[in-house]
Design brief:
The protein has a domain of about 230 residues: FAD/NAD(P)-binding domain (3-Layer(bba) Sandwich), CATH 3.50.50.60. The protein contains 14 helices and 21 strands. Helix 2 packs parallel to helix 10 and helix 6 crosses helix 10. The two termini are about 40 Å apart.
């Protein structure tokens, strides 16, 4: 007997995955487990994009979007203050205006509830998917179950996260509010200036996101996967097999395509027939020497909106969401100005800048990724747009994409992540 739909869907395929950040590498690994012949394509190599330099948080308990009710009140400040945590460069305003309108529309209370449900549903599988990949690659030590901590110097600071905790509490997502003594026990190296903590103990920390993605990619290759360095410029979709076309003119023939090119996905998605309002929230990091005594986990300064992370190679200060597109030069002024606040927060910190980095969060205005099939094309899938939570949700997104390619039920309603929502 042959030719049943279920059988043909389950047959191993040749699959091309575009983008080797955490999403693409995870998709490649889960697809490989199903026996597919997977080609992973990146223009620079694994972890060369945003997955390299983030804060390392697998913040699976968080469910609040960027656009919370009241975000409209922050827009004038965004335009006026180039040193703020959320910055909009004037020159980029005409381009980002439609995205901002969508962000404001998504911040109405009823929509925020839907978004929080969808974020929680996706992040629910985050820890298990991460654990399964790092165990397979033999780098379990990189995923540390140490939680995610936000600290506040003032009552008003803590109150600014009330709405976020309310969303979490109503979804049964675990957190604790800590007093100054409890904070000191949890993070003895912090200066005694913090009155409150907001602690999500169930979350994890990837202590070197760049190395983690590189090691996962090495595991993919060691298990027979093909890694290609090439810039994808287009697709041949008029006949099967499909073709993924590179800038060199070379083409990779395949039965299925997964697009996971992070913040650079919009133009490629359009070529696949999917129009998505993807833009980027740029973010920065500075690498400083390891602190001694140091932090045990990433700690967010709640009032000043930056994170100190005890990474393998040293202390990483991450900050800012800057709306300025993919091409504008970096502006490290805020990151550098925050060093004094970082020293106040962690007195053992040495303020010697080792390196500075600009990254591009792939951001949808409703803070939900684009995840699922392209309408009208069989065996073509999208997985990008995870914004502030791509490191968290990358592996579970990869697992879901593999389920879709295999024709399996991914166990989650994908309607909230449709390209045309
Ligand atoms: C400062 C900062 C802190 C952050 N902190 C956290 C955090 O603590 N927790 C969290 O969950 N998330 C965090 N994030 C967000 C997270 O880093 C991103 O959402 C995530 O890395 C996106 O992964 P990705 O695989 O979609 O994209 P990327 O990692 O950017 O990968 C996309 C890949 O596609 C490749 N590519 C692009 N175009 C092409 C093309 N045409 N042809 C071939 N290849 C192409 C690129 O070279 C790149 O390697 C943070 C982000 C920033 C900036």
């Amino acid at each position: 007997m042959s030719g049943s739909v279920a059988e043909s869907e389950a047959r191993p395929k040749s699959v091309a995955v575009v983008g080797a950040g955490i999403v693409g590498v995870s998709a490649a690994l889960f697809l490989q487990r199903d026996g597919h012949a997977v080609t992973l394509i990146d223009r620079q190599g694994p972890a060369s994009g945003t997955s390299f330099g983030n804060a390392g948080g697998v913040v699976s308990a968080a469910c609040a979007p960027l656009g919370m009710p009241g975000v409209l009140r922050r827009v004038p400040g965004m335009l006026m203050d180039p040193m703020g945590p959320l910055v909009l460069r004037w020159r980029y305003l005409p381009k980002i205006a439609p995205w901002l309108v969508r962000l404001l529309w998504a911040s109405r209370p009823s929509r925020v509830e839907e978004i929080a449900d969808a974020k929680a549903a996706l992040s629910g599988g985050a820890e298990a998917a991460w654990r399964s990949l790092v165990e397979q690659a033999g780098v379990s030590e990189l995923l540390r179950p140490v939680g995610w901590l936000e600290v506040y110097e003032t009552d008003a600071g803590l109150a600014s996260s009330d709405a976020e905790r309310d969303l979490m509490a109503r979804r049964g997502l675990p957190f604790e509010v800590l007093n100054a003594d409890e904070l000191r026990q949890l993070e003895p190296a912090l200066a005694p200036i913090f009155k409150h903590g907001f602690f999500m103990a169930s979350c994890s920390f990837v202590a070197n996101p760049g190395r983690a993605v590189e090691r996962l990619a090495e595991d993919f290759v060691a298990r027979g996967g093909t890694l290609v360095t090439a810039e994808v410029t287009g697709f041949g979709l008029s006949e099967r097999p499909y073709r993924v076309v590179a800038a060199s003119g070379d083409a990779i023939a395949c039965d299925a395509i997964v697009l996971a090119a992070g913040a650079w996905s919009r133009g490629l998605a359009r070529q696949l027939g999917a129009s998505v309002p993807l833009d980027t929230e740029r973010g920065y990091h500075l690498m400083l020497p390891p602190a001694e005594p140091g932090l045990r986990r990433p700690v967010v300064h709640g009032e000043q909106d930056f994170v100190l992370c005890p990474m393998e190679p040293g202390t990483r200060l991450t900050c800012q969401s800057e709306l300025a597109g993919l091409d504008a030069p970096p502006d490290f002024r805020r990151a550098r100005a925050l060093m004094a606040a970082a020293k106040r927060m962690l007195p053992s910190l040495e303020l010697e800048e080792k390196s500075a980095w600009l990254g591009f969060r792939p951001s949808m205005p409703d803070s939900l990724p684009v995840l699922g099939p392209v309408a009208g094309l069989s065996d073509v899938y999208l997985g990008f747009g995870h914004g502030h939570y791509g490191l968290t949700q990358g592996p579970v997104t990869g697992r879901i994409l593999a389920d879709l390619v295999a024709g399996r039920d991914p166990g989650i309603d994908l309607a909230p992540y449709r390209a045309g929502r």
